[in-house]
């Protein structure tokens, strides 16, 4: 049991310069006894309102240097404070506020919300067990308008899809990875590096791109690049929900449409997923 969607903004000031972290937290516990379920005995139950207040107090006292460190703080607090807690799981996701720049100059106290992917993390721990930390990015919308195709696929009497050697590749990406033993990691730096790997593997070199023969291959390229460059990542899951575009037939309008006007296919849409880990 626990508390969902604990939303708050943490404001940190350094002189005139302000820093913000707006997050949503879910914290769940499992107790050593199920007596509240079986007997209606609530003597060990930590109220969910107390759970919410603990999260807010920890944000006030310790700040949020990174989502992962904050999630670890929450797990550690429940494990060290309450002997009746057998398991704790914390999920934290961030609202994507970025500092506003005017003529290249960073503003000291103004921010803009940029929907370029939502950062999240999870931390969970059993009593006398290891602390496990996951991190990720979701709702990251990506598109490239060429250097993508889909050919040579299996065909039978139900196949109507034509082969394509030049198409738009577009999708919404979910990526989640697990760390090994968490030491003194710079979680913020690692997250930014993994995001850069995702964008690089998806797009290819900026002057020419890189051909993608399938969504599946693109997913694998993202995973392989992350594992090759970020040693702290042990297992990485990528889900790519595909958006397809059809070229509008404008012959009846007396126009030739050379893939200049397209409409998205709302449903059904494709999805591919893969989980890849080190040996």
TrEMBL record:
Q: Which reaction does it catalyse?
A: urate + O2 + H2O = 5-hydroxyisourate + H2O2
For the protein in the UniProt heading, the enzyme class is: oxidoreductase
| A cellular component term, taken from the record's GO annotations | peroxisome
Q: Keywords of this protein's UniProt record, alphabetized?
A: Oxidoreductase, Peroxisome, Purine metabolism
Tell me which residues bind urate. Answer: 48-49, 150, 167, 216, 242
InterPro entries to which the protein is assigned, alphabetical:
Uricase (IPR002042)
* EC number(s) per entry: 1.7.3.3
Biological process according to GO: purine nucleobase catabolic process; urate catabolic process
Q: Which Pfam families match?
A: Uricase (PF01014)
Q: In which pathway does it act?
A: Purine metabolism; urate degradation; (S)-allantoin from urate: step 1/3
What broad class describes the main subcellular location of this protein? other
Where does the secretion signal sit in this chain? none
Positions contributing to 5-hydroxyisourate binding: 48-49, 150, 167, 216, 242
Q: Which GO terms describe its molecular function?
A: urate oxidase activity
Q: Which family does the entry's similarity section mention?
A: Belongs to the uricase family.
What PANTHER family is this protein classified in? Answer: URICASE
NCBIfam families this protein is in? urate_oxi
Q: What is this protein called?
A: Uricase
Point out the gene that encodes the protein: Uox
């Amino acid at each position: 049991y626990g508390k969902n969607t604990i939303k708050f903004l943490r404001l940190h000031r350094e002189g005139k310069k302000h820093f913000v972290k707006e997050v949503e937290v879910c914290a769940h516990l499992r107790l050593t006894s199920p007596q509240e379920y079986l007997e209606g005995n609530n003597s060990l139950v930590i109220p969910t309102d107390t759970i919410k207040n603990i999260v807010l107090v920890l944000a006030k006292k310790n700040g949020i240097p990174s989502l992962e460190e904050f999630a670890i703080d929450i797990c550690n607090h429940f494990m060290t404070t309450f002997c009746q807690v057998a398991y704790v799981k914390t999920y934290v996701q961030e609202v994507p506020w970025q500092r506003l720049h005017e003529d290249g100059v960073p503003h000291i106290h103004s921010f803009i919300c940029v929907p370029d992917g939502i950062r999240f993390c999870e931390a969970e721990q059993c009593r006398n067990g290891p602390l496990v930390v996951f991190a990720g990015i979701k709702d990251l919308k990506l598109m490239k308008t060429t250097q993508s195709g889909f050919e040579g696929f299996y065909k039978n009497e139900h196949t109507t899809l034509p082969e394509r050697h030049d198409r738009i590749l577009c999708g919404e990406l979910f990526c989640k990875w697990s760390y090994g033993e968490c030491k003194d990691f710079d979680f913020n730096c690692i997250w930014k590096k993994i995001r850069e790997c995702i964008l690089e593997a998806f797009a290819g070199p900026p002057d020419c791109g890189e051909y993608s023969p399938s969504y599946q291959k693109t997913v694998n390229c993202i995973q392989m690049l992350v594992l090759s460059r970020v040693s702290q990542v042990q297992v990485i899951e990528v889900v790519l929900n595909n958006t397809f575009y059809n070229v509008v037939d404008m012959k009846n309008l007396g126009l030739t449409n050379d893939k200049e006007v397209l409409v998205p296919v709302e449903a059904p849409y494709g999805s591919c997923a893969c989980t890849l880990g080190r040996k």
